[in-house]
Each structure stands twice: as C-alpha cells, then as structure tokens.
Model the fold of this input.
Amino acid sequence: MTRVLIHNKYQIMDIIHHLPDTLRRSVSGKILFFTGVLGTLLLMALGWALLVFMEENLKEQHLESIDLVSKTASKGLQTIMLMGQASIAQNYMSMIKDVEGLETLRIFRIDGSEAFYPETEGKKIDDHLQETLNKVVAEHQEAVFSNIGDDGAERMTILVPLLNQKPCHQCHESAPPVRGVFQLTISLADKEANIRTARIVAVLMVCISIPILILLIHLVLIRIIQRPLATLNTAIERISQGDLTHVLPLPPGPLDGMERIAQELNSMTARFQSTIRQVFLQTHSMAACISDLTEVRDELKKDSMHGFNLARETAHDHEQVDSQVATIREAVNETSQQIGTISAATEQLSFNINNIATGASQASTNINTMASAAEEITANLAGVNESLSSVDRSVSTVAEAVRGVNASLDQVRQRCQHASQESRQADDKAQGTHEVMNRLAQSATEIGEVVAVISHIAEQTNMLALNASIEAAGAGDAGKGFAVVANEVKDLARQTTEATHMIAEKILEIQANTREVATANTEVTDSIRRIDRANGEIARSVDEQAASVTDIARSMNEVAHAAGEVTRNAQELNMAAQDIARAAMEASNGAQDVAQNANNAATAADTLSQQMERIHSMARKVSQSADEAAEFTSSANRKVQEIFQTTVMVNGAIHHTSLLIGSIAIPGKKLEHSVHDLVVPPEPFAVEKIKGAHLKWLGKLENVIRGRSDLKPDQVASGRECDFGKWYYSEGSERFGRLAIFQQVGEVHLQVHEVARETVKLVSEGNIAAAENRMNEFNEIKDRLFDLMDELYLEAYHS
Done:
C-alpha cells in the first residue's frame, strides 16, 4: 500500500512538473487551465458567500426564534403572575424548559436572587451575569450575549427586564421600574451542527460543480477552439513542410475569429504559391537563358580558338614574309652592287673603245705616209693590240657580271614570287581572322542579349524574394521556412545580378578588343596588300632589269664580235705593216676597216653605257622598293603581333566569361534546389523548353546573316509546325483556349516564326542590312512572347 502511494505521489509530481510545458504547447490547455482556475475560484467564492449567507441567515433565524421564545415566555409568565398563580408559573417554566435546546430558564429579582425561591436557596449567578443583569435593570432593555461552555458548545443567553407595570401595582410596590429579569439560555450546538451540515453540502456542491464546469468548458473549447486550432495546426504544419496545395475549408456566410484566421492562412498560402510560381518561372527562364548562353559560350570559345590559331599562323607567315623580304632586299642590294661594277666596267670599255677608234683613225690618216711613219704605225698597232686585249678583258668581266646579274635577278624574281604567294596566303588568313572577329562580335552581341534577359530575370527574382520576405514576415512562425527560401532567393538574385554585371563588363571588353583586332587586322590586310603591290613592282622592275641585262648581253656580244673583228683586223694590220711595201693598198684598206669597226664599237659602247645607267637607276628603284617592302612587312608584322596579343586577351576574357556563366548557373541550380521540396501544383506547360527553343533562333539567325549557316526560308518551321505550336493547337487549346491571354500568345508566336522566315529570305536575297533590322524586330517580338508566356504561366494556375 505504501509503495502504491509513493508511486502515485511520484506520478502526481511528474504531472505537476510537466504541466507548464503542456500548457505552453497547448492553447486550448491554457484556456482550459485558466478558465478552470477562474471557475474554481468563482465557485469557491460563491460557496463561501453562500456559507456566510446561510450562517448569517441561520443566526438571524435562531435569534428570532430565541427572541420569540423569550418574549412569549416572559409574556406568559407576566400574565400568570398577574393572575396570582405562582404554582402555575412554576409549572409553566417547567414546560418551557422542555423546549429542545433550552438549557436555562430563570427569573431573577433585581438584587440578583432567583425568584420563586427563598433568597437564601436560589442559585447564585457569576459576576459577568450579575453585571449584565444590573445593566438590564438600569437601562430597562434586554441584553444578549454568548459564551462557550466547558463542553466547548456555544450558548446564547437573553436577559429580558420584567417591567413594573400598573397591573403589578396590585401586589407590589410601584417604586422600582423593574420588578425582575427573565433569563433564557439556549444551546447553539444544533445551530452549529446545521451550519456544519450546510458547509459540507456547499463544499460538496462546489466540488461537484467544478468538474462539471471544467468538463462543460472543455467540451465547449473542443468544439469552438480546440478543433479549429487542431485544423489550423495541421494546415500550418503541412505548409511549414512545404505543402502549398493544402486549403482549409470555409463555411458559407459570416466567419468567426478562427474562420477568419483560416481565411487569412489560405490567402497567405495562395500568396506563397504565387511567389513560388514566380520563382519557378524565373528559374526556368534563367535555365533556358543559361543553356543558350552556354551554347553561345562554346561557339565563342571555338571561334576564339580558331581566330587564335589563324592569328598564330598569320604571325608565322608574316615572319616568313619578313624573312623573304629581307632576303630579297639583300639580293637586290647585291644586284645593285653588281650592276654598279658592270657600269664601271662598261665605262672603262667605252673609254678603251674610244681610244681604239682614235687610234684607228690616226692609223688610217697616217697609213698614206707609212713610209715615213712605219715605226709610229707599229707603235700604234701595239697600242691597239693592248687596247684590244683590255677590251677583251673588260668584255669578259662584263659578261661574267651580266651572268651574275641574271642569276641574281632570277633569284629576286623567285623571291618576289614566293613573297607574293606568302602575302596572298597572309591576306587570305587575315580575311579569315576578320571573319572570326566578326563572329566574335556577333557572339558577344548574342551573349549581351542573353545577359540582358538574365539581368531582367534577376531583377524579377529579387522582387519575388522581397515579396516572399514580406509574406514570410507576416506569416510568423509558419513563414520561417519561406523566410529562409526568400533569403536564399534574394542572395541568389544578388549573385546573379553581380555575375551578369561582370559578364556585361567582360562582353564590353571583348567587343572593344574585337574592334581593336578588326581595326588592326584591316591595317594588316592593307599592309599585306601594299607588300604585295611592292612585290609586284619589284617583280616588274626585275623583269625590266632582266630585259635590260638581255640587251646588255646582246650589246656585249656585239662588242665582243666587233672587238674580235678589230683584233683580227689589227693582226692583219700588223702583218700588213710588216709588209708595208708589199701590201700598202691592203694596209690602207685594213686601216679603214679598223677605223670603221672601231667607230661601230664606240657607238655600241656608248649605247651600253647608257643602258647600264638606266639599269643602275632601276636597280636603285628596286632597292628603294625593297626597303619600302621591308618597312611594310615590319609594320605588318608588328600589327600581326598586336592582333595575336589581342586575341590572347580575347581568349582570356572569353574564359573569364565562361567562368561567370558557370557562376550564374550554380545559383540557378541552388535556387531550383531550394524550392524543390515544396509541394505546389504541377506546371501548366514546359516553359523552360519553350523559351530555350525560341532563344536558339537568335543564334540561328545570326549564323545565317554572318554566312555561317546556309539555312533556306522553306526550312524555317511555321508557328503551327514547331513543338510549341503542336502543343498550342492541341492540348493547350483544350486546357486554356478560353483564356484571352492564350489567344494573344498564339498570335505573337505566329509573328515570331513569320519574322524569322522573312529574315532568312532577306539573307538569301543578299539584303543583309534589312535582315539585321528584321532580326532586331524578331528579338523584340520574342521578348513580347516571353512576357505573354509568363502571364499565361501564372494565370493558368488559377484556371
């Protein structure tokens, strides 16, 4: 038994210990607890007031009964006394004593002795009673007092004065106004027993009423508060777990407090659904943009690497051209030196031939007087022979120099041809680099457009995050989970905005570098063309020099032939001089022939000297052209190196842009993951796939305009043939055909495909400028289509 009591004691203590936590977790428990406490206190107060009222009422009733008894008894005794029946008075007093609760009934004289007894035989009274009796006699008024007996019971005593009335004067004197005092003592034990009984009954009533009251309050709370609170709690738990599809039912008609809370909770859930739908919409839009941006990034990297390789090959080709031009320059300088040598030899040859002609003329003059001048003729012929030997040596030197010039000119021609070929290859590669730069600019423009879309999405996402934060703050504890999601959405929107700004800056940097590369590439192309023209001029000068050298060679052959004739004639003249006597006539004729041949040789020598002067002048021009070509080549090489360095910078910017695109993709995935656990109605249609398909048309049209693709107008699908068009005119029309926004989407979608077809048609007709304008119009219509699709996406949830 003791063990059971101890166990129950611990159970009660455990309940009391956990009672605050239980009350703290339960609103209905709090209401029930405080209502029960207040009800208990109220019932206890009512019970206490009832007990006090009952006690006072019983006391008053008892006092009235005692007063009535005392008055009745005193009147009866006075009546009997006036009748002079003392024996009857004693019997009457004995009868009154038999009244229940009456303990004492006595009549005292004014001196305190008991009447109907001799003064020495009556019971003596205590001092307190004597004092009260004297007061009653003196004041002529009754007195009431109570005391506790030895048995612990309360007793009430009434002292009533017996006045000395006129009828009393018949037997007594009239002097004292009070003849005696009537004492009546009644026990209050029965009254106290009744009061105790009333107290017990009242306590029992309170004890019974408190559980009944608490039970009634509990039943009322269950129906009015606990059940609605449980329903609200279940709804809030489901919402806090991410279920945004749960809706609390509301009765028709006026709503009470709990039902208004449920209505606000439904409104909050609807606003959360709208916010989450906006987040889903912007997430899918961002994913579509990032997907297309990734493809553009890959194409941009591919074009950039191709441009980098072309720039590197162009730089290598320019180095070879520079080397070839340097070689040509050296060959031209060497040829110029050789031509200078030939010119000097030709001048010497002309001088010698003129000497020969002078000698021959002198010999012809003096041959008629050969007898007198035989020795002089011999000397002159010796000088002629010596001059002829010198002429022969000069002719040999000139012939050797001419052969060297021919070889040098052939080498210069070959170098020029090779340099021209390298220049044309460099020009082709420079043109390829220019096309790559155009594609880079195009890709950068596409990225800029996509970045603008992402920036717009980031701004909308930021607004959604702000709305979600406001809704979450208004939802209290139920919105804490959404506050976390809203903060994540806000951070991701901020990161996306920063990344798009950085990408925009890099795109501007890429575009600036691309323009610099294009400008430098144009200058390189111009330099290459000037080099090619200089090479052509060099080749033409070389051809002219070759023709002049051929003339020189021919003249040299004529000089050699004439010199041979002169030598032979001189030998014959020498032989004739030795036989002057015998062959005077032959000597005279030989001298004339020698003079004639010498004059011819002098004329040829003058012609040769003039030709060599022209050749020397052209050689100087060729050397000057070679110097200019070398300067052009050096300038072009520097610009090609600048293009190469700029291409490296563009590659770096593209790599940075690629990293930034990856940085944008990561927040998008995190944003999608943060709302992945939320339970919302399914999407009305695949907005990400639809937007991604139409974003790809920007790249397709750019490729067509820039010549990268040969797409034909009949290959552009109509608005009814694409995937979205097939869905639109089948399932979409059945589900959303009644919506006005759905009809607008269809009209704008057809315009998108029509403008795309017209753009491709303009390209096929060669009107590139008009095609670019139509493409800009396509982009504007595409943006309007996306806005309408966003509205349809949100409105479709409510349909």
About this structure: The radius of gyration is 70 Å. The chain has three domains: 2-224, 268-674, 687-796.
